[in-house]
Amino acid sequence: MLMSHKAHKRLTHKEKIVERRDKMLIHDRTNERATVEEVFDQTTRLVVFDLLNSGILYEVNGAISSGKEAKVYWATTKTGNDLAVKIYLTSSAEFKKGMLKYIEGDPRFKNIKRDTRSLMALWAQKEFRNLREATEAKVPVPKPIAVKSNVVVMEFMGKTGIPAPSLKEQSPKNPERAYKLIITYIKRLYKKAKLVHGDLSEYNIMMWAGKPLLFDLSQSVSIEHPMADYMLNRDLVNLNRYFSRLNVNVTPVEELHKMVVGK
After folding, report:
1. Active-site residue (options: 82, 106, 216, 235)
2. Residue 5: what pLDDT?
3. Residue 216 a catalytic site member
4. Rounded CA gap, 171 and 166, in Å?
5. pLDDT band of 30, cuts 50, 70, 90
């Protein structure tokens, strides 16, 4: 039975994700595993099949998020552990134009090829490396599992295909505590991982196991990048803007900046 438009609007965020996740399941009848959608080119499909054949992935199920530059799928291992598979779209020409400013000037990346497929592969490598360096610095982020071409496999933050809510979707129960923890994470990211998130906002912070967790580190840059200080300041402004709306007594951005970069 079809839902009326009015009834559909009353669905919770969780129900909408379940509906989208289940609707987008596409199964390969030859081996009962799920396969990716036809919107991906042949090379990308082969990359996913390689990850399946290698045993890193056992099933790739429905998409849990979709944007202009990438789609994220819920996947599982053979033992049933949840994974997230982020696939960067090689057809995203508009995204290609904006991504170069986050790569050029980062001393970790040299001899950059500018064709779309090479850039998307480099972008995936960049996110994987950022996640790894953040994890080593004990910053709560999804743990990176594997990267191949334009596909990144990482820890899934959620349960049974339902991702943990972002701060945009669900405010923290204790905003003051969440605010202080995020500042600690930003400092740790800067001091230990030598990274600036670069796009931090309520859209890129999840609440998981009662604590905030940073995600979407693809655009994160080395603190040596010429735009690092500007991006750090933008992160802090966004953080204060969000938590001010929750009546948190936020620390002025100038003071926060000194706390992060100071010795």
Report:
1. 216
2. 40
3. yes
4. 8
5. very low
- Residues 6+ away with beta carbon under 8 Å from 245: none
**The model's pTM:** 0.85
Please state the rounded mean pLDDT for residues 7-25: 47
Contact yes or no for 73/65 (Cβ under 8 A): no
Q: Which of 28, 41, 50, 199 is catalytic?
A: 199
Catalytic, 82? Answer no
Tokens 């010429």 sit on residue: 226
CA distance 235 to 219: 12
Residue range 187-217, pLDDT digits in tens = 999 999 999 999 999 999 999 999 999 999 9
pLDDT at site 256: 97
Asked whether residue 132 is assigned to any structural domain, the reply reads: yes
Do 126 and 254 belong to one domain? no
Would you call 212 exposed, middle or buried from its count of C-beta atoms within 10 A (0-12, 13-18, 19+)? Answer: buried
Sign of CA dihedral 20, 157, 58, 68: positive
We report the CATH number of the domain holding residue 63 as: 3.30.200.20
> What residue type is assigned to position 126 of the chain?
K
